[in-house]
Amino acid sequence: WRLIQAVDGLITAIESSDEFVRSEATEALVEIGDAWVIDPVSKVLDDVEGEVRAKAAWSRVKIGNDKKKTVEPLIKMLDDENEEVRNSAKDALKKLAKLEENGNTK
To answer: 11 near 4, Cβ under 8 Å?
Structure first.
């Protein structure tokens, strides 16, 4: 029950007006690692702050379980205005390719 409450709090936090709060909440949700947090984390793929978008990119690798839903946002992020976001998306796509090459789904 406490985990559910904590996750609910993190989901609320990703909608904060504070970039640091959104960034840390995104990272915490990704660390939880369950596929059911992918939808809330997807909300920050278009965040105004590059650091938040970059963390969201890595969420696609850690918790994405639908290849199409995982890869498409990352490809879009390759054209992001922020270099950190572009690099995170590129690295995430490389990691996904390596995992697939090794026969891993995650």
So the answer is: no
Which is it for the CA torsion 54, 55, 56, 60, positive or negative?
positive
| Cβ atoms of 52 and 42 closer than 8 Å | no
Alpha-carbon distance of 3 to 13, in angstroms, equals 15
Cα–Cα separations (whole angstroms), residue 23 to 5, 6, 33, 96:
19, 16, 16, 22
User: Of 77, 64, 72, which Cα lies nearest the Cα of 30?
Assistant: 64
- Tens of pLDDT, residues 27-83: 888 888 777 777 788 888 888 988 888 888 877 777 766 677 778 888 999 999 999
Q: What is the pTM for the complete model shown?
A: 0.72
